[in-house]
Design brief:
With 229 residues, this protein is an alpha+beta fold. The protein folds into 2 domains: 96 residues, Glutaredoxin; 113 residues, Up-down Bundle (Glutathione S-transferase Yfyf (Class Pi), Chain A, domain 2), CATH 1.20.1050. Helix content is 51%, strand content 8%. Strands 2-1-3-4 form a 4-stranded mixed beta sheet, covered by helices on one side. The longest helix is centred in the middle third of the chain and has 27 residues. It is globular.
């Protein structure tokens, strides 16, 4: 359990102690929490954690998340009315879904959860590596084998998602935490602007799904919650 007297709140003070506190940056993982909070309408405060300045590895941030990654939250009104601190974007999505009773149909709980886990264990890590080797610091590396290996795996995963979306508007029929989990990384891969690597143009169902997701007002605002500038 974490509380609002923890050292993280000395670096990022809470103006409203009764509100959920979000510590994040608008990365593909970071925007999941922002989108979820916007979709649910929960009152919250957002604190930008500049990972480029290594703020996620400061003692204050590590007091909430010893793994040193964003996003993380403190909910002063957690289970049994006690405060709770959470990290890992997938866990945050599932927690907020249970807290609000939104975006996780109880009748399809495990079907939805499996797609969140699919994103956490597959799409996110593979897309993150491709993003590095295809668009960021690794793009200029002479050895293209790492880039090509991750590109092939992202294409495979996109094929899985594209097949799942055939005849469906959303991953589990109704818009849910499964969709929110995937938006950031699919958007990031689209933005690499290297369709020869990703096969992006061929995944018509994924493209349609992403366009629809990005039209949602809560997604648009959630992406900007912890943006720099």
């Amino acid at each position: 359990m974490a509380d609002l007297s923890a050292s993280i709140t000395r670096r990022w003070p809470a103006a409203h102690l009764d509100r959920l506190q979000l510590y994040s940056l608008n990365t593909p993982n970071g925007i999941k929490a922002g989108i979820m909070l916007e979709e649910t309408g929960l009152p919250y405060e957002a604190h930008l954690v500049d990972i480029g300045a290594d703020e996620s590895h400061t003692p204050e941030f590590l007091s909430l998340n010893p793994n040193g990654k964003i996003p993380a939250i403190i909910d002063p009104d957690g289970p049994d009315g006690r405060s709770i601190g959470l990290f890992e974007s997938g866990a945050i999505l599932l927690y907020l879904a249970e807290k609000t009773g939104m975006l996780l149909d109880p009748a399809r709980r495990w079907e939805t959860t499996q797609w969140v886990m699919w994103q956490m264990g597959g799409l996110g890590p593979m897309a993150g590596q491709l993003n590095f080797f295809g668009a960021m610091g690794g793009k200029d590396w002479e050895d293209k084998r790492p880039r090509d290996r991750f590109a092939a795996e992202v294409r495979r995963l996109f094929g899985v998602l594209d097949a799942r979306l055939d005849g469906r508007a959303w991953i589990v029929d109704d818009y849910s935490v499964a969709d929110i989990a995937c938006i950031g990384w699919v958007r990031a891969i689209r933005n690499i602007n290297a369709p020869e690597l990703t096969g992006w143009d061929g995944f018509t169902n994924v493209r349609r799904w992403l366009d629809a997701a990005l039209e949602r007002p809560a997604v648009q605002s959630g992406i900007k919650v912890t943006a720099k500038g």
